[in-house]
Amino acid sequence: MTKILFVCHGNICCSPMAEFVLKDLVKKRGLEGRYEIASAATSREELGNPVYPPARRKLAEHGIGCAGHHARQMTKHDYGYYDLIVCMDHANLRNAARITGGDAENKIRLLLDFADRPGQEVADPWYTGDFEAAWRDVLEGCEGLIGQI
C-alpha cells in the first residue's frame, strides 16, 4: 500500500482539497485498497477545524465530499510512516523538512512537480479567495501524481 500525505499551512484548504481529490480519483479507478491518503498542517493555527467552507463548496461542486476532516499538525513520525509527503508550496516544503528532521529519503515533494510544472506552487486561495485556481492546480497535480505512482 502506498501512503501519501498532503501538506499545507493550516490543513483546511489546499491539502484537504488534494486529499479528497486524490481519494476520488483513486476510487473512480477502483484502486482504493492500494492507497492510504491523508493531509496535515505545518502550523498549529487551525488544529481541529473542518475544511474551510469555500474549499468544501468547491469540492462539492465536483461531487466530492470531505465530511469528518479535522485539521491536524504533521509530526516527525509522519516521515517514517508515509511513502510520499506532498506539499502545496515552498514554505510547506521547508516547514515539513524542519518538522521531520530533514528529507534524507527524498520523500517531500511539491504537488505541481507531478504536473510537469516543477517548482511551481499551488495557488493559495486563503489570500486570494480564488478557489477555482486552487482547484485547477490541485486537480492537475493529483492527476499527474496518480499517473506516476
In brief:
This protein is of the alpha/beta class.
How much of the sequence lies in strands comes to 5-15%
pLDDT < 50 runs, ≥5 residues: none
The percent of residues in helical segments reads 40-55%
Under the CATH scheme, the architecture is: 3-Layer(aba) Sandwich
**What's the main sheet like?**
4 strands, parallel
What spatial form do the alpha-carbon principal axes imply? Answer: globular
SS summary, helix count: 6
Describe the structure.
The structure is a single chain. This protein has one domain: 3-Layer(aba) Sandwich (Rossmann fold). It is 42% helix and 14% strand. It has 6 helices and 4 strands, in the order E-H-E-H-H-E-H-E-H-H. The chain has helices at residues 14-28, 53-61, 76-81, 90-100, 125-128, 131-148, and strands spanning 2-8, 35-41, 84-87, 108-110. Strands 2-1-3-4 form a 4-stranded parallel sheet, with helices on both faces. It is globular and about 40 Å long. The termini are close together.
Describe the secondary structure blueprint for this structure.
Elements: E1 2-8, H1 14-28, E2 35-41, H2 53-61, H3 76-81, E3 84-87, H4 90-100, E4 108-110, H5 125-128, H6 131-148
Parallel strand pairs: 1-2, 1-3, 3-4
